[in-house]
## 1
Amino acid sequence: MFPLDSYLRRSDELVWREIGDGVVILTADGRAIHTLNKVGSAIWELADGTRRIKEIISLTCERFDVSLEVAQADVQEFAEQLVAKKILQIRNAEAETEAEGGGDDR
Amino acid sequence: MTVEYSTGLGKKLVATCIRENIPYAVQMELTSKCNLKCRHCYMVNDNDVELSSEEIKDIIDQLVDMGTFYLSFTGGEIFTRDDLFEIARYASRKGFFLTFMTNGALITAEMMDEIRTLKLIKFELSLYGATAKTHDHITRVAGSFERTVAAIKDLVKAGIEVTVKTSLMNLNIHESDDLKAMCEQLGVRHRISAGIAPMKNGSLEPQQYDLSFEDMERYLPRHDFDLSYLIEIGEKDPAHRFKCKAGNAACSVSPSGIVCPCVMMPMAVGNLRERSFKEIWHMQPSEELKRLRNLTSADLPVCSKCDLAQYCIRCPGVVYLETGDIVGASPSACRYAQWRGSSQVTVMQSPGFEPGGITKNQKEVIKKEDETRRIQ
């Protein structure tokens, strides 16, 4: 489980687009294509490097009208899966404070 | 609430893009200006009109919303634009798989630091000969071979993915083996294509350099052309055997902002200075675009009944340029199909078939010929 104060950021080594109801992610080697459903897509869009995990959990609660426990479990599981595949990056709060301009252009 | 996540949907994604008309691959012609004067070039001057940097950035923004993953910058020669890196940096920040299509002759070692900062960039460079004599004869610019090869070396050294592309013609076919060896030595992928397209204004002048039947017989079996994709289309979806992604999942933008189904198919379907991409592509597609999207093999009166269909790689763009008739037969494709038919180089699955489209028996014959020649 990642610390709630850490930041989630999409990797630079991929291209992603909203296609239909979800998000499609292509990795840099062009070999892997990942698709996210509506909930995954919402978390993905929030993971722009400017929000802490706890903020993403809170926004997910509001958007999908679920309990904090459910949102926390889902966001953490999602983050663990995608960080393991190097599609998402995790940065602790101190590192993010030192870095300038954590977010991307979209 | 569940978070669903799945992988390995490549074919499904492409099928979705074709079905939903999502232009996942777009070629932007940034300019029609060029530093070379290649004899076989299909490009025509786009009335000297070029989109400004800001207009191009606006189109890039629209392409993000349209679902484009692959964005290629081509020309003319893209390095003639002073704002190329400004445009590329912008596209890179927006997130695309970027390709620079270039002759490489204007690339310098000093540009490598800038190029390295671009995310997910790859280069495709045109090289037409294994010697300066042949390459420079085709480009009609002395010293171009030397500069292009230097650029390839600099890019490889900088860790950039490079593909060298060669159009085979009667001016360079004799060096095709040497080119292949040269690319191996340079450590780059080599992609060759046979067949010369007419110019975009319909002039057939470049086709004087296309291979003769004798050239095809003598040289082409040596090269691996991966035609395996045609096997699948031909067998699984014969109605779309002759269809490509142009107009559905792919398109091009001319230097002046005209949207076309493909760089090889200058069928204007809208002007981005007048309408948005979404209007042109989705909301109010032109009659020509709608017709192209709905074409099936049954609409091609000659090709659908042709005995050589299984040997044919019919490019809708080349047909359009050659005859002006999008449903007609392509004289150049017919010639190549005749050669494949007579050589039994089939694009359909058969015993001994290899992805290169050449049977194992033919490879054995070629190998023996080479060995004999070396002994002599």
## 2
Amino acid sequence: MVDIHRDYVSNVSSTDFPGNFPGEDHAWDLEKFKSNFNVSISQLTERTSNFDLIGIDTSFANAFRRIMIAEVPSVAIEKVFIEQNTSVIQDEVLASRLGLVPLLVNPDSLDWMVDPLHLNEAHNVENTVAFSLQVKCERNSDGTIKNENVYAKDLKFVPFEGQTISPEPTVAYEDILIAKLRPGQEISLTCWAILGVGSDHAKFSPVATASYRLMPQISILKDIEGEDAIKFQKCFPNGVVDIVDGKPKVVDPRKDTVSREVLRHPEFEGKVKLGRRRDHFIFNIESTGAMTPAEIFLKSVAALREKATVLQSCKLE
Amino acid sequence: MSGDVSMADVSVGNTEEIAVEDDKMTILPGMASDGSAASFKIKDEDHTLGNTLRYMIMKNPDVEFCGYSIPHPNDNHMHLRIQTYGEITAIEALQKGLRDLVDVCDVVENKFRDEYNKGDYVQEEIA
């Protein structure tokens, strides 16, 4: 348990190692880990998820988080060929904005470009998806303006000769504003999207958010009664503390934000202890669209395993 | 570059997977003569593998010390130090650590898949 005090935390590091405590066996035991470890999913949709990993070390929870952000591959626009851009947005700013548009392209349907700078390597049907953006702003006869806004939905997939990708690549969100135009202005360009990882550029990160927090724990050490009980309840977000028979009862610590408000009041001194469970991780993952959060998480687990198996196959000396 | 991109612009490149480089992992100078202590240099790895591997190796009762470091943020490699009590070599401790790490990933994946397949969770967006 990590202890949370008024202005500091204590007992922060993992201590579950052999030899740390006399008489305690902390040697690695797969069967023990199997029976202790638990996954509990509370929400999982196409775009967002919330689940708990219980009974695992921080190093693993953090590894999965890091891999989801920086190492799970996804597809984003890498090269933009601008034919005409008379808008007020400069070419390079426009290209940067296009790169950040989340695409709905299955990453498994593309091959890697091996050369990171793509200097000596050709784009081909296996590793590149092309989009075209052709928008011209004009004044209609009734005075209204056509194509005043350029949205992500104006990016149209253009298959290369002989290229079939199903489902057909599109943008994840149609209504992302890319540029604004005035009558007579025009944008005409082609973009090439490739596979990449978030460590190269954030546009390749498959997650908008991948984070975890530790499960809060609130222990009531001495009875709190009467007016104080109500005050105690109000120190926490709604639904964390209930009042049963005039006494506060912690019903849902998961909802707590660990604001430490309760530690500010002298009447609760010594009566309550705040902490966080060191081995209970509440993950929150939001996908940018191409994969579901469950897929992204499973890919992060596979990626960590892959790292270990690569090292296993290394010859030393 | 023309707006209508044809296959003429995009010749077929090679799609082979890259093999593991010979110097992915090397032993740094100064290994103990009985092999009970050694430092390893691992290329293209960071805290993601460093911290998990350190944890797994420290869980081994035969290991006296294990630690990792990233000597310089500009260099894309990680150092891993292992010292054992002498019952096993540092290389054996590393290999056990790697096996255990794979086991953990298997367990996490299976448990997650089980829960996922149960479907016992909110499946709609909460507005």
